[in-house]
């Protein structure tokens, strides 16, 4: 079941009582603070020094061109040197810092884009799992899904058993051989020949038919009139 987000809410400006939430919030806000300071240095050429102490008494700092020089100028109230050499060095340093800040900004933007892409892929994966829930691990299925999957598997088992039994019956049935008989004696009907019975005399009636009895045979036709009284002489018609 997907977790519903409460949306963007306004955070109350009081100290967090939960120590774990406090550490996470400090880490995120510190990174955001340093990012904004880097953008200010890049866009405006400002010199910045930031020193932050965490709730665990750890120190974090960010400075441009460096934390020490900015703090020294702030403490002594001394303006920066105006010599040409120092100005060139400072300009070269500032150019290098600006390039590094630009690279850092690009990397942070790419990281943010990859995070969003990862969230989109996670949402797509969850949506795909909701559509094809039976492909998910068994541990992630709820009670109705498990019951539905059980019924489907039982039905599949029955169908597989029926098909296997059908194939076994077809493979175990012995082949039958047929011998053809005369179309005049049996009407063109073919009778199966029993291979198990080796006594061919019992099968002879199926293959041969005896002649009909003499009393059932028709008499021969009478001779022609001119051959009834044959005396050895014949007349010809001329």
From TrEMBL:
GO (cellular component) term, any one: nucleus
Q: What is its main location?
A: nucleus
Where is the region Disordered? Answer: 203-238
Q: Which GO terms describe its biological process?
A: positive regulation of transcription by RNA polymerase II
Q: Provide the alphabetized UniProt keywords.
A: Coiled coil, DNA-binding, Nucleus, Transcription, Transcription regulation
- Residue ranges constituting the MADS-box domain according to the UniProt record: 6-66
Q: Which residues form a coiled coil?
A: 94-121
Q: Where is the composition biased (Pro residues)?
A: 208-226
| Keyword check for Nucleus | yes
Name the PROSITE patterns for this protein. Answer: MADS_BOX_2 (PS50066)
Gene Ontology terms for molecular function: DNA-binding transcription factor activity, RNA polymerase II-specific; protein dimerization activity; RNA polymerase II cis-regulatory region sequence-specific DNA binding
Entries under Pfam families matching the protein:
SRF-TF (PF00319)
Comp. bias (Polar residues): 228-238
Q: Where in the cell is it found?
A: Nucleus
* PANTHER family per UniProt: AGAMOUS-LIKE 50-RELATED, MADS BOX PROTEIN
| Protein name according to UniProt | MADS-box domain-containing protein
